[in-house]
Write a structure and sequence with these properties.
Helix content: over 70%
Structural class: mainly alpha
Number of helices: 35
CATH class of one domain: Mainly Alpha
Strand content: under 5%
Radius of gyration: 32 Å
CATH superfamily of one domain: Tetratricopeptide repeat domain
CATH topology of one domain: Serine Threonine Protein Phosphatase 5, Tetratricopeptide repeat
Shape: flat
Length: 650
Amino acid sequence: MTCWDIIGISPTVDKKAIKRAYASKLKKHRPDEDPEGFKQLRLAYEEALEEAKFYHPTQEQSPPQPSPVPAAENTTAQAAPHTQREIIDSDRVSCEQAVTELQQAVVELYEDFNARIQLGNWQAIFDQSKTWDMEVLQHIALGLLQFIGRNPFIPSEVISYLENQFAWEENHSWLQQYFEEDFLRYVLNRVIVCRWGLSYRDIRFPENSDLETVETYLRQRELLTYLLDAPEDDERDALLSALQGHNVQDPELYRLLSSLYLNEGDIARALQYSEQLNNTFSGNIDGHLRSANLYYRQGYFSAACSAYESALAVDEEHPLALKGLAACYLQRYDLFASKHLYEQALVQVPFDMEARIQLVQINQKIIQQGLEHLEKHPKDTREQRYVAEGYLETGAYHEAIQFLLPLTKSGFFSKADRDGEFHYLLGLAYEAIDQPEAAENAFNRSLNLAVMSGGNGYEALVKLGETAHANSKFKWAEKMLLQARHFNPESSKVLRLLAGSQFGLEKIDEALENINHAIRINSEEHHSYTIRAIIFMATENYAAEAADLKQVLEYCPTCCRHWHKLGLCLLKLQQPDEAMTAFENATLYNTARQDSALQWIQLALGTGNRDRAQLALEALERAEADPAQITIFKETIERMSSEVANEPNA
């Protein structure tokens, strides 16, 4: 069995993929339960990192065929409608009849609990509301608000959907004509806070439970949330007895009971209900996380590990489960495994401060342990690499350089020096302290040493290509990146940089092919859309350019530069109103943008939009534009105002 078989991926040069695979396998090979498997996994990881340096594809990868990248679509499947009523045609039936039919549909839906909690059933009734006659719409909006006020047990996603359909919050003043203020405040508050309410998913009532039984149980369950912090008394005990007497299997009830006993300090009973939640609803991640947290607090780290692993079996990328498992490994003082799990948690939540702080502390310990080990074993290249990486990851770049320089001097014949890895790390350190020439020299040396030792030098190739691209040395960048693509044809970063370099060389078709491939691999990388938008602009495909710029702004809504570009693009598409909005947003996020304010005011004046021209003028003043120019625009707006005032019907 090869190292690749053990970590569970195909041979690759991508270190991030190797680290992800290793972190995933850690869940199945714990040091306390499978020490031999854990040791074998660690060795396989190290071996895979080593083999990645020398990996060469067996044959040249054929370039992917260009194909259009479809726009994102909402493919979320909805539950089958509970009732297939014919859509109300308000032109065909009377308002009274339409309202009566809709109200009856809502009542029937509510009385069937399993149907009530399916959003798709509500959508089947109300998705056509925008086409209804205004009188029908108003009657339904009023009736439905009253219904929600009298029937509190409706899922939050349903209430949010209905609020989007009928906009009760926005029409508060109109609703005051029909409802008492206390009632209105109560219902609208439910609309606002519903997202934090109890869930209705996965509740299993005994067969033949009628509506009254269901409502009674839900009402008692709601009351329990108010008694979580209450002292033990007869009222609370009676409520608990009544809830358990319903014989309902409900994940929320088990969660509430676990919280109740945890608040009382009764860990054993809190664990009992967490485990009951896990056993009854194994796919509910909350129970596994609760059990893991309780075990961890008691110091039962092996049991906590098992619970976190069960959570990761439900969602292998859950950041809390990854951090919890990392903390368990840290308690066992396995710094290396803990570090990798925290790194995977940061992939999911990049700004998680707890994970970042833990990584800094772990790296500091790795550095300390590594230096102590190197005093006894000064030529251990693996420990040297750990120390160097620790310095880099904690931001100690000068210390990294001081540590690496002796290891990269000619005549130091360590294995790491021969394959260029230490030179690569040295290049990263120089790059971080803004010494580009020293960084480039180190990356070049790393590549040369890697090739001399039979390696691929993939990481150095990517860095050299990235540096050359940033310095507009497109020919050299293309050469480096084509070699990198040979070793890893599915790297969206390499394809993106390659596309940018080929565009700089006016190889438009090749650039478009590579950037499309990059987007197919990673559709959430906004830099790829930026490059493709530039290509579309150069080829005068303005509709496609606008679509990509809007995609970029989904990820970077405050980027004034892209708002300005979108405005220029919309101008070419002869969409002046949308262009004005884009230029307005550009000035909103950067008040110094005179060019955006100028485009905005010229468009507003050109289309006779005096109000927007006045707003644009204010933006131009904030940008401290030429006073003479501002005076001219002021006079133009004043003339427009005078002309409007002098019109006969003004």
